Amino acid sequence: MKPFKSFLAPLLCEYLIHRENLGYETKSTLSYLKTFDRYVREKRIKEGLLQPSFFLELRSDLKIESRSVNTALSNVRMFFEFLVRRGIYEHNPLQDVPPLPEAYFVPFVFSPEQIDQLLTAACKRLRKTECSYLKDLSQYMAIVLMARCGLRISEPLRMMRHHYRQEEKTLCIEKTKFKKDRLVPVPMAAATEIENYLAVRDSLLRNDHNPYLLAGFNQKGLNQETLRLGFHRAVKDIGLNKTKQTVGNINFGAPVPHSLRHSFAINTLKQIKDRDGSRQHALPVLAIYMGHRKYQFTSAYLKVSDAKDVIGLIEFAKSQKFGK
User: Does the structure show a pLDDT above 90 at 40?
Assistant: First the structure.
């Protein structure tokens, strides 16, 4: 099945191949270019050079957040840079199309106490039936690893059993978001939980050939959507099932699995501060631990000291909005 259907389809395909040959991951680029391709078809444009006014209209018609609109336009802009280099366009029609003002995003942050409550709630939800217990325990362990090691949701689900090195108490995470491998030291309490899980698994499954560290059904790993459902049930159990809120130009995120990764980084930096350590010196190490391409991305967490600061910021923003 061809990914594009507008008159630009051959060039869009050629551009994607060009990006892949340069070593870039093209999954997200493909998604944004499909949106652009669909818009071209909806406008029934058959041929010719697209003008800046077309992209201003596109920018206005996309019913997504400003940040996503700007990302989409950035991907389309790079495509037209490619066409300029090919001599098809003399000038990039998006070069003077300005980005939309972006709202600030404040992620939901669990405090250390809330992390403990969440894990307790997830543990209490383990079903005791033979067919469900191990699967539920695997889901619980995925939440533990996200919370205690700052992993992305996909990372514990893709890890194989040999990726946990018991003697070293480390996890080897291969082919992360940025196609990098990294070795993550596991906190002792989390390592104990992993080893207890593996012991339970070995006792329940006499002929266990599932290669995944966290076992699902039929020799496969866990399903991400099922894990998300289990996470949100535990969040609801501890009374934190909040919705996303927008106050002025600030978006306050709701609790999602990725919040555990944010919380790990922010709480780690707070602990360093509380010990009178240098958070700036810790940033490069934390960036490597979390698999960031640049430690400057990790430094964004310095803007939020802890969960209490986020709650205070929300309450202040609400008071300004409603004039209290």
Answer: yes
* SS3 state at 214: coil
From the list 44, 46, 40, the residue with the least C-alpha distance to 76 is 40
Measured between alpha carbons, how far is 245 from 100 in angstroms, rounded to an integer? 20
CA distance 191 to 167: 10
283 backbone dihedrals φ, ψ, rounded to 5°: -60, -45
235 token code pair: 């969040």
pLDDT single digits (tens) 193-208: 999 999 999 998 888 8
- Is residue 103 over pLDDT 60? yes
Residues 106, 252: contact at Cβ < 8 Å?
Answer: yes
Is residue 212 classed as helix, strand or coil in its secondary structure? strand
SS3 167: coil
Which pLDDT score, from 0 to 100, does residue 307 have? 58
List the helix and strand counts (H, then E) for the chain: 13, 6
Q: Is the pLDDT of residue 246 over 50?
A: yes
Task: For strands 104-106 and 250-252, give the pairing.
Answer: parallel
Name residues whose C-beta falls within 8 Å of residue 309's C-beta, 6 or more positions apart in sequence: none
Q: In this structure, what token pair is assigned to residue 172?
A: 């080897």
Closest CA to 290 of 85, 148, 160: 148
Cα separation, 247 vs 146, in Å, equals: 29
DSSP state of 264: H
